[in-house]
């Protein structure tokens, strides 16, 4: 079965009730490609609103979750609370959290494990800094980040993971990876899945690209064989892109 194209919109810390309502109303009205899975990730305070407003075909994702079930963890949200609010997905390991909030590989991996054990699906973000790319360490970095998660998950649990390759130098910078750069890393990730997890995981896991994706560049990126979709930040107020390059 071919991998279903996946488009995630990460609103980050943007939006208020009015603007989020209007984005969702527009998405509800848009002619969406039935072959594309659409998931939006508003700030946590608007998750319930988003779930109430969005068409049931549109999934809602948190931008983060904590690895402990409940307790004295001020400011955090648990997997159970997300499930209670009918939120099916969470982003984990976004570079803004890895860098600004110093989340390390093991913490990210423990959150992925807690999320999946509790019934969520996960958009796992990985990617290298500009310095690491220039030092030719891209594959080493993404492999390290993936190995950390593999320490915690069973082979079957990878069915609940979408891997988002997001080079840090491309996020919010307007500097998008070339199609060749994206394909090279995506195919290395697929090989890692085959070697370390299973041939099924390699065939079935969606590997999506994030980093200054826009209506202009998504069509070419989508043509690459190992690009199964996008995680879109800044442009996520705009229409989504399908594998065929059509806008929905
Ligand atoms: C992101 O936040 O995941 C992202 C890819 O951002 P942008 O599209 O703005 O680069």
Ligand inventory: phosphoenolpyruvate
CATH-defined fold name: TIM Barrel
Could you tell me the radius of gyration in angstroms?
Answer: 17 Å
Average per-residue pLDDT, rounded, comes to 94
- Strand segment count: 8
In CATH, the architecture is: Alpha-Beta Barrel
Largest sheet: 8 strands, parallel, barrel
The ordered string of helix (H) and strand (E) elements is EHEHEHEHHEHHEHHEHE
> How many angstroms does the end-to-end distance come to?
22 Å
- Supply the number of structural domains: 1
How large is the share of residues in beta strands? Answer: 15-25%
Pathway: Carbohydrate biosynthesis; gluconeogenesis; Carbohydrate degradation; glycolysis; D-glyceraldehyde 3-phosphate from glycerone phosphate: step 1/1
Keywords: Gluconeogenesis, Glycolysis, Isomerase
Catalytic activity: D-glyceraldehyde 3-phosphate = dihydroxyacetone phosphate
Subunit structure: Homodimer.
Quick gist of this model?
The chain has 248 residues and is an alpha/beta fold. It contains ten helices and eight strands.
């Amino acid at each position: 079965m071919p991998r279903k194209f996946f488009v995630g919109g990460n609103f980050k810390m943007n939006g208020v009730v009015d603007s989020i309502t209007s984005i969702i109303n527009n998405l509800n009205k848009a002619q969406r490609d039935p072959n594309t899975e659409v998931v939006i990730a508003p700030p946590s305070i608007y998750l319930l609103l988003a779930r109430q407003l969005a068409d049931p075909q549109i999934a809602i994702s948190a931008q983060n979750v904590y690895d402990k079930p409940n307790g004295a963890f001020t400011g955090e949200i648990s997997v159970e609370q997300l499930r209670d609010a009918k939120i099916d997905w969470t982003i984990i390991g976004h570079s803004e959290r890895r860098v600004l909030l110093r989340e390390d590989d093991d913490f990210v991996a423990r959150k992925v494990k807690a999320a999946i054990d509790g019934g969520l699906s996960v958009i796992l973000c990985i990617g290298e800094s500009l310095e690491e790319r220039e030092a030719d360490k891209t594959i080493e970095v993404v492999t390290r980040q993936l190995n950390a998660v593999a320490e915690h998950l069973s082979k079957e649990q990878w069915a609940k993971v979408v891997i988002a390759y997001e080079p840090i130098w491309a996020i919010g910078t307007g500097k998008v990876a070339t199609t060749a750069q994206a394909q090279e890393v995506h195919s290395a990730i697929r090989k890692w899945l085959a070697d370390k997890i299973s041939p099924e995981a390699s065939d079935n896991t969606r590997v999506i690209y994030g980093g200054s994706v826009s209506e202009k560049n998504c069509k070419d990126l989508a043509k690459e064989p190992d690009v199964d979709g996008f995680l879109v930040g800044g442009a996520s107020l705009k229409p989504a892109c399908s594998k065929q390059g059509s806008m929905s």
